[in-house]
Design brief:
Number of helices: 10
Structural class: alpha/beta
Strand content: 15-25%
Radius of gyration: 20 Å
Order of helices and strands: EHEHEHEHEHEHEHHEEEEEEEHHE
Shape: globular
Distance between the termini: 43 Å
Number of strands: 15
Largest sheet: 9 strands, mixed
Length: 378
């Protein structure tokens, strides 16, 4: 466990190791660290030594192999880890860190099963460490404004219906293209509309039905396009379609008893992406736009604040687990062709406006600047 001598002070900076140096780490997280005021990059951990050495020189951090990881956790040189490995390796690296008292910022989706999620929650409790799942939109000002206006302020009256489409053209050579269901579009991209509607409605789904197809001519080892229907308490419905085999598209709509709201863009990030939404009520339309912000720096700064002040983060292990139980049900529905009932569940904590962070975006490295990485988009 991190000792008082090595733990960050309330006025200090949290020292991070980045575990897994794929596209999300290289193109988003590592450049974003420069925007934070309370976080610093201390170490890089990967299974590709040449990648670690080149990126460590670029960012001024120490380089470590996966075999070195236990020693790094015990070294006193880091306070937290950002785990961005393929999802089926999240527990492998997050659990020993948490048990050692090292705080963990864990990329979403949290893991590949509810059992694995519970194991990570238990590890955090045993080690006395903070665990946060990296829902970057929980700190994006436009998203938080929209969620709180719909959920708490009755922007569209009683929200009854949610629909969304999120698609990308993913290169089959990228690791996402051949990692099965848990590397595919449902937990990867479906995580966004699922998490959005859970927090817009402020409740948890009770039934799941899914239908998937494989696009002719594509070489994925899973259904590359999936349509999901969710039933929520109070006879509310949500539907979303996600795809790894289509033109890049992202939008959603919430229809309520007194109006509707649509958002586009709504799930992406980058220096040119500002979340915007349009409200229609009584025949009148209002569009609300927001400037782009550095989403990865915002979530990291928030998590570091939680570490430094001893405050529990909002997007904790329970939040991640509640999404994974739906992804498990989607998989079961795809396999059986039947709806899957879920046990009623609740969530005491939801994203709130005070979590918003408005840091200026950084320029992202281009795909050809990534080190030893097959870009995800074809």
């Amino acid at each position: 466990m991190t000792s008082p001598e090595t733990a960050p002070s309330s006025t200090g900076s949290v020292r991070y190791a980045v575990v897994g140096l794929g596209q999300i780490a290289q193109q988003a997280f590592l450049p974003a660290m420069a925007r934070t005021t309370n976080s610093e990059l201390a170490a890089l951990v990967t299974g590709t030594p040449g990648k670690a050495a080149e990126l460590a020189e670029r960012y001024g951090a120490s380089a470590h192999s996966y075999d070195d990881y236990p020693a790094l956790l015990a070294s006193g040189d880091i306070d937290a880890v950002y785990v961005a490995t393929p999802v089926f390796r999240h527990r492998e690296f997050a659990e020993p860190a948490l048990e050692a008292g090292i705080h963990v910022l864990l990329e979403k989706p949290m893991e590949v099963s509810v059992a694995d999620c519970r194991a990570l929650v238990d590890a955090a409790q045993r080690g006395g460490a903070q665990l946060m799942v990296a829902y970057r939109l929980h700190h994006e000002p436009g998203t938080l404004e929209l969620v709180t206006r719909v959920r708490d302020e009755g922007l569209v009256g009683d929200p009854r219906l949610f629909t969304a489409v999120f698609s990308q053209d993913i290169d089959e050579a990228n690791h996402r293209g051949h990692s099965g269901f848990w590397g595919g579009p449902v937990p990867d991209m479906g995580n966004y509309p699922l998490n959005e509607v859970r927090n817009l409605f402020g409740s948890e789904p009770v039934e799941v039905f899914a239908m998937g197809v494989s696009t002719p001519g594509r070489g994925f080892n899973f259904d590359d396009t999936v349509a999901v229907t969710l039933r929520f308490p109070g006879e509310r419905l949500a539907q979303f379609t996600i795809s790894y085999a289509g033109e890049a598209t992202e939008h959603f709509m919430v229809v309520g008893t007194e109006g509707s709201v649509s958002a586009q863009p709504c799930f992406g990030f980058g220096p040119g992406v500002g979340i915007s939404y349009t409200v229609t009520r009584g025949g009148r339309t209002e569009t609300c736009t927001h400037d782009p912000v550095e989403q990865f720096a915002g979530q990291t700064e928030y998590f570091s604040e939680c570490i430094l002040t001893g405050t529990a983060p909002e997007a904790d292990g329970e939040e991640g687990l509640l999404d994974i139980r739906v992804h498990e049900a989607v998989l079961e529905s795809l396999q059986t062709g039947r709806p899957v009932r879920l046990e009623p569940a609740g969530r005491a904590v939801r994203p709130s406006a005070d979590q918003a962070r408005s840091l200026a975006p950084v320029e992202e490295p281009e795909d050809d600047e990534l080190v030893a990485q097959v870009p995800q988009n074809g």
